[in-house]
Write a structure and sequence with these properties.
Chain lengths: 305, 430
């Protein structure tokens, strides 16, 4: 290697080394540790030896009905995010972009406002909304004329995700609205003017001009929504009370948390919890790959402004 | 390559400096010759426990300039989460709020961080009031007070009398109150049924002792001597079902959380409240607090004479030095000094007045004569009622979770007592 090349290599290494070391320390090490832990029976709180147990924790997970219950709920959250937050955010952004309502700035702030609030505050607020004789129950009592009526969807495993889905949409739609609005504002107005001259109606402009142009943004938003939904923990944890409600609304991260940090009757709980968290990563990657695959098939991603 | 080495060294220095930023304060204190005690404290800035903690630490540090208390103040689930995270990562505090049972003591026991305080208690504490925690009489933490009654029936005596009723002696008396309460637009009993633990700690713990006639039925069941499918246990669950079906506890209770429960009672929306003794301090309406009588559950269906009138009580939690803290004599002594300051007669009396404890565990402690009425009544209940085991002091993990969730399902009509009993038995034997 020539002196000049060696110097160039030195400079190159000097630039990337800090980043690589930080990455290894902060990202790679915990990931490798988690994978190793999921293949063992090690309990870090107790200490002792690591014993390799192969895929035992994953087998336990696949035979645990709580895993499938949490997975189902997680898929509902993904669906709410992808088919709820993104379309609603997109439509709201379009309404604001096309100035279809007066006071657009006000609505923009109102819709985006939840994003400025702490998730715990939002969770607690919705918990209060759904509690016995809370605001939602009061509304039901007024409209039904039954003073004892209660909003009890949180108590049943098959209905708990409705109120939670509503809270998720309320909280996150503003984020997607802002993403779409920012991208809409980059579109050349002449495209819309040309469509209008050709006689396109407003829905046609939206579906035939805007949606194809922003297909790449839709894809990125979908990836963000999927990844965010699978790791989502805080809102559902804060919105539910310990016991029936939280078990009904259990998603994979809560299942992982309850297994690893609370189930003292299982001495291998940390290893089991690691297996669940690795499963979350695998499912997340699979879903993102699937969305990329579908997008490629549909020719999504080529944005022309 | 020299440049590469230099760049690496600079990066190393940066990392070191970043580390120093985080640990700088501790090093500084240590360099000044102070003993640094790392504490995990219980409370938050909005409750009495947290406010008192901050005040006590400030006063302690002012009185002991050679000791620096570095604490983390957390409450409820956040505290339990952090305990597990810190112990698992090896970041063990020197002093912590802890317990010694299956609910509060499990992470400390598993991490082998329990340390026997027995040799350090003689001067200040009445050891006869502290139940042993370990197999050889070890005491791993200093309880805030005598045993913690978890199944108190708080009665708003004024409201009960206004409806022409009186303190219930039997389950049937409670049932007979339902029409009058309904007419007045109040509940008979309010409970924070949205919190799964409340059903176990504050209701079933008493019921199982009553239906079995055995104060130690729970620990025997956990040890395998009793089964959760035994008639006594199913009967105890059946009483919960009856309470709801008879209208004594409203089905909507399962949507009421702790704060709303205490608030409902404090605002006169219920004749009775079910909670632990600690809730006495949360009744903020002075008129209701002064008219509140603390009772054990009245005579229940299926009840055996041997455990009539009993309440369930758990060993109290409190502060203790960890094994890590005790490994350094200077830190251990500083930690014990802090704990003794925290449990001083003045602070224990304040805690008693605040309704946080039943009675202090101090040697030769004289109960003040000017205690609030509700506190006096709590002491009366503690002195008059026999005690039985609290379920989650012994049953933990998946079976306990299934039991708590199961009782909420019974209340909301989604499961039968027999189904829940079978589920708990199955999980307990796994």
């Amino acid at each position: 290697m020539k002196l000049r090349e060696r110097r160039a290599l030195g400079v190159y290494l000097a630039f990337i080394l800090p980043g690589v070391l930080l990455y290894l320390l902060v990202v790679a090490y915990p990931v490798v540790y988690s994978v190793a832990l999921s293949l063992s029976d090690y309990n870090p709180n107790r200490g002792g030896d690591w014993n390799f147990v192969g895929l035992l924790q994953f087998k336990t997970m696949l035979s645990d009905p709580n895993f499938y219950h949490a997975l189902r709920n997680n898929m509902i959250v993904v669906a709410v995010s992808v088919f709820g937050q993104i379309p609603i955010g997109f439509i709201l952004a379009y309404i604001l972009y096309r100035r279809m309502v007066k006071g657009g700035d006000f609505f923009q702030i109102m819709v985006f406002l939840p994003h400025f609030l702490s998730t715990i505050v939002i969770g607690t607020m919705w918990k209060r909304m759904f509690q016995a004789d809370g605001p939602v129950s009061r509304l039901i009592q007024i409209f039904s004329g039954d003073p004892s009526a209660q909003f009890d969807l949180m108590l049943h495993a098959d209905t708990v995700m409705y109120p939670i889905g509503f809270a998720l949409i309320w909280m996150y739609t503003g984020l997607y609205m802002i993403i779409f609005l920012a991208n809409l504002q980059k579109i050349n107005d002449s495209l819309i003017e040309a469509a209008k001259i050709d006689g396109a109606t407003e829905p046609q402009i939206f579906l035939k001009v805007i949606v194809p142009i922003l297909s790449g943004t839709i894809l990125v938003s979908a990836v963000l929504a999927i990844a965010g939904s699978l790791k989502g923990f805080d809102l559902i944890f804060a919105l539910t009370t310990q016991g029936l409600q939280r078990n009904n609304a259990m998603v994979l991260p809560i299942f992982m948390y309850q297994t690893a940090f609370q189930n003292y009757s299982n001495p291998m709980r940390y290893a089991y919890g690691s297996a669940i968290s690795n499963a979350i990563v695998i499912i997340s990657v699979a879903l993102i790959m699937a969305s990329n695959f579908i997008s490629r098939k549909l020719g999504v991603g080529e944005e022309t402004y | 390559m020299k440049k590469l080495v230099r760049a690496t060294l600079i990066f190393g220095m940066l990392i070191l400096m970043a580390g120093l930023v985080f640990t700088g304060c501790q090093k500084e204190e240590a360099a000044q010759g102070k003993v640094v005690v790392d504490v995990m404290a219980y409370g938050d800035n909005s409750n009495q426990e947290g406010v008192n903690w901050v005040r006590i630490v400030d006063a302690f540090e002012a009185a002991n300039p050679g000791i620096d208390i570095q604490y983390e103040l957390l409450y409820d689930e956040a505290y339990h989460q952090k305990v597990v995270a810190r112990l698992t990562s090896g970041d063990v505090p020197d002093v912590a709020y802890m317990g010694a049972d299956a609910r509060w003591g499990a992470p400390w026991m598993e991490a082998s961080q329990q340390w026997d305080h027995t040799p350090h208690l003689d001067a200040m504490y009445d050891k006869s009031l502290i139940p042993p925690h370990g197999p050889n009489g070890e005491i791993y933490e200093i309880p805030l007070g005598t045993s913690n009654i978890t199944t108190v029936l708080f009665m708003n005596e004024k409201l009960v009398k206004e409806l022409g009723l009186s303190a219930p002696k039997t389950y049937e008396d409670l049932k007979a109150m339902v029409p009058a309460a309904k007419k007045a637009g109040v509940d008979v009993i309010t409970i924070d049924g949205a919190d799964g633990w409340a059903w176990g700690s504050c209701v079933l713990s008493s019921f199982i002792a009553r239906t079995s006639g055995d104060p130690q039925w729970v620990s025997k069941a956990v040890a395998g001597e009793n089964k959760f499918t035994d008639k006594a246990f199913v009967d105890a669950l059946t009483i919960i079902d009856m309470l709801v079906k008879d209208g004594i506890i409203p089905a909507k209770s399962v949507l009421v959380d702790y704060g709303s429960n205490v608030s409902n009672f404090s605002n006169g929306k219920a004749l009775f409240m079910i909670q632990g003794q600690w809730a006495a301090g949360g009744i903020e309406n002075p008129e209701v607090a002064d008219n509140t009588i603390l009772l054990a559950w009245p005579k229940l269906p299926f009840e055996k004479a041997a455990t009539a009138g009993t309440v369930a009580a758990a060993p109290s939690v409190g502060y203790g030095v960890t094994k890590k803290g005790a490994s350094d004599p200077a830190v251990r002594d500083a930690g014990l000094a802090l704990i003794n300051y925290f449990y001083s007669e003045a602070e224990s009396t304040q805690r008693l007045r605040d309704g946080a404890i039943v009675a202090p565990i101090l040697k030769n402690y004289q109960v003040p004569s000017d205690l609030p009425l509700i506190v006096k009544r709590k002491v009366e209940l503690a002195q008059s009622a026999g005690t039985t085991e609290v379920i989650d002091s012994y049953l933990t993990g998946a079976p306990n979770d299934a039991l708590n969730e199961g009782m909420q399902k019974i209340v909301s009509g989604q499961a039968t007592p027999a189904e829940i009993a079978a589920k708990v038995e199955e999980l307990a034997r796994k």
